[in-house]
């Protein structure tokens, strides 16, 4: 067979059938860029170190920066420039490193200007009609200059392509002053160096969300630099801290200071200008090596990244109505952005001790929003990216603990630096869930040691009192009610992993601690509450009150009283039994909020009664009807949530995506099941929202979900079969998915109230009988 024919046949066999277009084709990166989603539309590779995206307003105050946590906000009218680091859906702002903006013509302003005053600086107005975004690619036309700006990204590089108007001189403004978290003193130091081969390198040291973060970059151009100017806009540059490399004999020009901006001139160009940028947390040499590690021009980089996204997203084939397909495909895309690569191509990375370390045999990962992502994001990765991510993720967590001055696992880490944001030690369930699912590639003994050390680190978050009293006392530690129940769940996952490893003494200790949730449950009110050191519950008590630093973390008693995922049967008994639990769940969803004002709490979004889908403590709650023998109520609540909280528009996420957690919830829920209790090896069955989905598993098998008769008139599950046999329980086990096969739902117009209602058919509980 001729080679061309063989290639054509191979492509034909590899291509999806016309009935199942590739998942990548349904992704819309603009979903979540408006409202409170905090996602960005720019170019990124799967788990890429560089997130090259437009910044629409970096001159915000600290309060305003919350709404611009991803740099881009859909309703902003101007673009200030394109920077190389961004969070996807975070509830806090930072990054926005190394901002580049093209300018055409003779005048080159070095200040961004006022977004309300056209022509007052280098920023430009733009129109959404001139924007394009898809996985690995972003493009926009800048109104002020007519420049067509295109972006793509590799794992450690970002590539710009700028088409300047004919006859107009081409310039770039490189602004090291710009940041997504502005306050006086944010930029501690920065540097620029122009090297003889035309490579431009530099660095920034910043004090933002992370207390001391260093970033280095290397930049090359497809056209020779004709002229340049390195400008400091601050007069006083006296500083005794980090100052980057001293001027070397090989440097053609160099500038250091706290407020640097560069003008780069290329003259009139006959072809678009390509700019390739790599970053490193280690040094300029690391950035140069990263730049060299991904050869090729814009087109080559785009082709590699498109292929990577096609493969990664193609592991979940989706057949659904167009709007639902776009929402679910984009949710999968958002789930594959973080935890991102944070180490150089030679393995070096900067750790939580601010020292340089070297990863051996894996790519160091960071951007761990663990309070959010342990719930569904990481369990999703164990299904769709286990061999590519989870050994690297777990090894990164372990190595971070080794490098931590306190010897504990990350809490909320990015670029290797710890922020100490949120509560719990939720790296623990991530590791335990991966280990129990058979995902290897890491030292399990070292992992367990780090988990135990984190759980016994008395200075952290009231753990000393928790270990002595069996709860965190509110008169000694804020948010004590939340901390008690979250610690207890984390402890249960330690017990599970220790037991599987034969560490009976560790398992016994942490099984006991897993029951400490009872010490914060008030049987009189039926809520989890904060206790004082003398044992009394704190008063006055309002279960609807939400105040930062109070009894609960970004929530109230209504949300946190359900957070006992390891022992929902025990919780329901404490509440008075199944009927009482169902009534309380209904009361939560049906609560009248008309007289409550939550405007002071910026993370409280997506309310359905006292259920708050825009924030994570509620995410498992709709599935808890299963634990009370009423899965049909779960099915009804899921329909209510999906229809009100997700849509394929810029404001299509009701709250921050939180590095993929909001999105992972939708992916799982659309498939028909959800990991209520990571570490249990079970998924609670809900109801599907797609007609058909197929997961390509790393063992080469396929697991298919079919929703027979799915439609608006049939919102309930009438029957469930697994591989053709009736499935009488409201859970599916991890090993059943990994074995491949078919999970088939027969949808019905009315609820099947007898299906999975027996106690033996319900999800596991540590104190429940199965």
UniProtKB/TrEMBL annotation:
Annotated GO MF terms: hydrolase activity
Pfam families the record matches: Glyco_hydro_92, Glyco_hydro_92N
Key words of the record: Hydrolase, Signal
Taxonomic superkingdom: Bacteria
Signal sequence interval, chain numbering: 1-19
Domain Glycosyl hydrolase family, first and last residues per copy: 287-748
Entry keyword Transmembrane: no
Keyword Transmembrane included in the entry's annotation: no
Domain Glycosyl hydrolase family 92 N-terminal: 27-280
Protein known as: GH92 family glycosyl hydrolase
Organism: Sphingomonas naphthae
């Amino acid at each position: 067979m001729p080679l061309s024919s063989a290639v054509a046949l191979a492509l034909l066999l590899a291509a999806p059938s016309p009935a199942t277009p590739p998942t990548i084709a349904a992704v819309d990166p603009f979903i979540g860029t408006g409202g409170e989603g905090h996602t960005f539309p720019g170019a990124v590779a799967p788990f890429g170190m560089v997130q090259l995206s437009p910044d629409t307003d970096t001159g915000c105050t600290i309060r305003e920066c919350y709404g611009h946590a991803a740099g881009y906000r859909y309703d902003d009218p101007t673009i200030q420039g394109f920077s190389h680091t961004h969070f996807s859906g975070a509830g806090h702002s930072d990054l926005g490193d190394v901002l580049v903006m093209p300018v055409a013509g003779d005048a080159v302003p070095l200040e961004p200007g006022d977004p309300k005053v056209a022509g007052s600086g280098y920023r430009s107005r733009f129109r959404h009609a001139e924007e394009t975004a898809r996985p690995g690619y972003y493009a926009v036309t800048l109104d002020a200059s007519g420049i067509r700006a295109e972006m793509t990204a590799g794992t450690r590089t970002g590539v710009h392509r700028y088409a300047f108007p004919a006859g107009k001189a081409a310039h770039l403004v490189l602004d090291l002053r710009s940041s997504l978290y502005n306050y006086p003193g944010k930029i501690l130091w920065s540097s620029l160096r122009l090297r003889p081969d035309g490579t431009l390198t530099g660095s920034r040291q910043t004090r933002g969300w992370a207390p001391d973060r260093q970033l280095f970059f290397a930049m090359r151009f497809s056209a020779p630099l004709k002229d340049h100017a390195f400008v400091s806009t601050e007069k006083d540059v006296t500083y005794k801290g980090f100052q980057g490399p001293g001027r070397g004999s090989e440097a053609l020009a160099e500038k250091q200071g706290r407020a640097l901006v560069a003008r780069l001139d290329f003259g009139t160009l006959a072809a678009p200008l390509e700019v390739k940028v790599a970053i490193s947390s280690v040094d300029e040499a690391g950035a140069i090596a990263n730049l060299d590690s991904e050869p090729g021009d814009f087109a080559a980089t785009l082709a590699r990244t498109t292929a990577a996204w096609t493969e990664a997203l193609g592991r979940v084939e989706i057949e659904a109505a167009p709007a639902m397909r776009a929402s679910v495909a984009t949710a999968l895309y958002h789930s594959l952005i973080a935890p991102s690569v944070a180490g150089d191509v030679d393995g070096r990375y900067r750790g939580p001790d601010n020292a340089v370390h070297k990863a051996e045999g894996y790519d160091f990962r960071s951007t761990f929003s663990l309070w959010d992502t342990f719930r569904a994001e990481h369990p999703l990765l164990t299904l769709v990216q286990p061999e590519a991510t989870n050994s690297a993720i777990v090894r990164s967590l372990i190595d971070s603990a080794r490098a931590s001055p306190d010897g504990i696992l990350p809490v909320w880490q990015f670029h290797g630096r710890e922020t100490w944001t949120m509560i719990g030690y939720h790296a623990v369930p991530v590791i335990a869930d991966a280990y129990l699912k058979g995902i290897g590639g890491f030292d399990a003994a070292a992992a367990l040691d780090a988990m135990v050390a984190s759980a016994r680190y008395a200075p952290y978050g009231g753990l000393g009192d928790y270990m002595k009293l069996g709860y965190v006392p509110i008169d000694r530690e804020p948010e004590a009610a939340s901390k008690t129940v979250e610690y207890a769940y984390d402890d249960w996952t330690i017990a599970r992993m220790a037991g599987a490893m034969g560490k009976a003494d560790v398992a016994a200790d942490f099984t006991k601690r897993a029951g400490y949730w009872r010490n914060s449950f008030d049987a009189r009110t039926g809520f989890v509450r904060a206790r004082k050191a003398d044992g009394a519950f704190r008063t006055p008590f309002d279960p609807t009150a939400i105040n930062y630093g109070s009894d609960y973390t970004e929530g109230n008693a209504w949300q946190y009283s359900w957070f006992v995922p390891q022992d929902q049967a025990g919780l329901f008994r404490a509440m008075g039994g199944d009927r009482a639990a169902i009534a309380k769940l209904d009361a939560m969803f049906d609560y009248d909020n008309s007289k409550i004002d939550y405007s002071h709490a910026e993370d409280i979004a997506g309310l359905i009664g006292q259920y708050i889908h825009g924030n994570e403590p509620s995410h498992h709650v709709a599935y808890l009807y299963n634990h009370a023998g009423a899965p049909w109520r779960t099915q009804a609540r899921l329909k209510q949530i999906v229809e009100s909280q997700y849509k394929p528009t810029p404001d299509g996420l009701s709250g921050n995506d939180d590095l993929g957690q909001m999105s992972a919830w939708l992916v799982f829920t659309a498939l028909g099941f959800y990991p209520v209790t990571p570490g249990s090896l079970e998924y609670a069955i809900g109801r599907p929202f797609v007609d058909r989905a197929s997961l390509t598993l790393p063992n080469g098998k396929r697991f298919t979900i079919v929703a027979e008769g799915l439609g608006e008139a049939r919102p309930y599950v009438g029957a469930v079969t697994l591989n053709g046999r009736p499935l009488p329980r409201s859970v599916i086990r991890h090993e059943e998915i990994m074995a491949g096969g078919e999970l088939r739902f027969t949808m019905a117009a009315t609820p099947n109230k007898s299906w999975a209602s027996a106690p033996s058919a319900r999800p596991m509980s540590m104190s429940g009988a199965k």
